[in-house]
Amino acid sequence: MIAQLTVSALMVALTVFIHGSGIYILGRLLRIEAREEAAEHIHPMSPRGIAVTLALVLGLIALHGFEIWLYAFLFLALHAMPTLNEAIYFSTITYSTTGYDDEGFAEGWRMVAAIEGVNGVVLLGWSTAFFVTVVARMGRTR
Questions:
Q1: How many CB atoms lie within 10 A of CB 43?
Q2: Taking the CB of residue 83, how many other CB atoms lie within 10 A of it?
Q3: Rounded CA separation 84/69 (Å)
Q4: Residue 102 vs residues 45, 61, 78, 115: alpha-carbon distances, Å
Q5: 3-state secondary structure of 44
Q6: Rounded to whole angstroms, what are the CA distances from 83 to 23, 87, 118?
Q7: Nearest-angstrom CA–CA distance, 108 and 2
Q8: Residues 6+ apart with CB under 8 A from 34
Q9: pTM (2 d.p.)
């Protein structure tokens, strides 16, 4: 149990650091874009503004994808899943808390998978809050 909690704590710390760094970078890029839009009098709902919003969404999805892959590689390293394909699938449905049957998962590492679900909920919520804040600011600049 101690090994599972230690591995889980390290993964939570790593993914929170990665996620925070990614959101910081996306936020910086958005501030630069907002200054350019203001200087050029570009409406946030213009094709350029919509492209920036789409890029933001894709950036957030890429960030979550990277974190999901980290868990998948961890599951492979722990021999908790037999193949990369199964590890990625399992990690994706666990991270998103879609639900799963952990029948093929190594019993000794199930707590790590459970904590991945909690971690995923927090990180997805963080991304949602960030995205809603960005969209609300776009609405105020009109």
A1: 12
A2: 10
A3: 9
A4: 44, 25, 15, 14
A5: coil
A6: 31, 6, 24
A7: 11
A8: 137, 141
A9: 0.82
Q: What is the pLDDT of residues 17-38, one digit of tens each?
A: 999 999 999 999 988 888 887 7
Rg for the chain, CA atoms, rounded = 18
CA separation for the pair 48, 10 (Å, rounded): 39
| Residues making up the chain, counted from first to last | 142
- Whether the per-residue pLDDT at 142 is higher than 60: the answer is no
As a whole number of angstroms, the distance between CA 30 and CA 27 comes to: 5
Pick the CATH number of 2-140 from 1.10.287, 3.40.50, 1.10.10, 1.20.1260: 1.10.287
How sure is the predictor about 123, in pLDDT bands with cuts at 50, 70 and 90? very high
* Mean pLDDT computed over every residue of the chain: 88
Read off the pLDDT band of 140 (50, 70, 90).
low
